[in-house]
Design brief:
The protein has 383 residues and is of the alpha/beta class. The protein folds into 2 domains: 147 residues, Rossmann fold (3-Layer(aba) Sandwich), CATH 3.40.50.720; 132 residues, no CATH class. Helices cover 45% and strands 15% of the residues. The chain has 17 helices and 11 strands. The strands form 2 sheets. The protein has a 7-stranded parallel β-sheet, sandwiched between helices.
């Protein structure tokens, strides 16, 4: 079997780092043709030496120059490109079959769109691509012959449950599980004044700072509601959230006959990443086997939309459609960045998002560029 040629966008981030472990476990299964990072050239340089890609993208000229210095002495230094155009170049290398998009935020959309237009399979960890791009991104996939395979653990779970003829046409409900984050049982007053350290202290998952804050506000689950409606072609009314603190059941599908299927496993991004990269094949992983007796109990509860208003706002954005999801996403990215910088309190994140959504255009977007512009404009909004 020939190695599958892949590109890894954001290879030095949390998704990319997990993917590297998979690539090392199966060196004969994958050929890394392209990879990208931002400015962490000290982290990507050894990966370039290890995997010998043809193309590498970094943030800017300074990062490119620093990377060339770190790669001096190699028999062949790969082509090094920069900026958003560099990410797109890595996503569209003709030889590549599968693109793992592990970028963070709306900046991942152009590369996703370009890859789908070029007929690539996109293993999508960058959920913002779908939130901002919406139906227009799916139209690009259809016209270009590309395919989306979800990497989010929740959507990977649903995707796995829907394997089989006709399963996607027999959905009654999709049930997205949420850990509840570090503030699941806190009173609303304490949540509003949570510190950065408290918000980053996730009880079950180890992730990057942006997605960890989104998990604390439950915006991550809100984004996943929108993502699920698009990936699985269901109305928002058929997508529900249930809080499951143990994070063992990653999501469930209820079918029209009342049967419910679920995918279970200990919290690990290795499984969904590996499944997306090897689909439709399954290979052994390093994740420990599930021991149900050891778990003792699995618990569930309804989410609290009052204490976690971001979940309500995302549901409203899904119902409104149009520019609302893009504006909501941009406002959230901007607010989270400001919170992590210490310039706004935790409770102001939802306030900024709601203010931005109140001004979102009700017109239907005509292009991906319009949606990107709306997302970027909302990132800078102040109240």
């Amino acid at each position: 079997m020939s190695p599958r040629p892949i590109s890894v966008l954001g290879i030095t981030g949390s998704i990319g780092t997990t993917a590297v472990g998979i690539l090392r476990r199966y060196p004969d299964r994958f050929a890394v043709v392209a990879m990208s990072c931002g400015t962490k050239v000290d982290l990507i340089a050894p990966l370039v030496r290890e995997f010998h890609p043809e193309l590498v993208a970094v943030k800017d000229g300074d990062a490119a120059s620093a990377l060339r210095d770190l790669l001096s002495g190699m028999d062949r230094i790969p082509d090094i490109v920069t900026g958003p155009e560099g990410q797109i170049a890595c996503a569209t290398v003709p030889a590549v079959e599968t693109v793992l998009n592990g970028l963070v935020g709306g900046m991942g959309l152009p590369a996703t769109a370009a890859a789908l237009a070029a007929g690539k399979t996109v293993a999508l960890a960058n959920k913002e691509s779908l939130i901002v791009g919406g139906q227009l991104l799916l139209d690009i996939a259809q016209s270009g012959g590309g395919q989306l395979i979800p990497v989010d653990s929740e959507h990977s779970a649903i995707f796995q449950c829907l394997q089989g003829p006709g399963a996607g046409k027999q959905i009654r409900r999709l049930l997205l599980t949420a850990s509840g984050g570090p503030m699941r049982s806190w009173p609303i007053e304490r949540i509003a004044n949570a510190t950065i350290a408290e918000a980053l202290n996730h009880p079950t998952w180890q992730m990057g700072p942006k997605i960890t804050i989104d998990s604390a506000t439950l915006m991550n689950k809100g984004l996943e509601i929108i993502e699920a409606t698009l990936l699985f072609d269901v109305p928002v009314e058929q997508v529900e959230v249930v809080v499951h603190p143990q994070s063992i059941i990653h999501s469930l599908v209820e079918f029209t006959d009342g049967s419910v299927l679920a995918q279970l496993g200990y919290p690990s991004m290795e499984l969904p990443i590996q499944y997306a990269l090897t689909y439709p094949e399954r290979l052994p992983s390093s994740v420990r086997p599930l021991d149900l007796a050891d778990l003792a109990q699995l618990t569930f509860e309804a989410p609290d939309y009052t204490r976690f208003p971001c979940l309500r706002l995302a549901t409203e954005a899904a119902s409104r459609g149009g520019f609302a999801p893009a504006v909501m996403n941009g406002a959230n990215e901007g607010a989270v960045a400001r919170f992590l910088a210490g310039s706004i309190p935790f409770g102001a994140i939802a306030e900024l998002i709601e203010a931005a959504m109140s001004e979102a255009s009700t017109e239907s977007p005509r292009s991906i560029d319009e949606l990107i512009a709306a997302n970027e404009q909302a990132m800078t909004m102040r109240v």
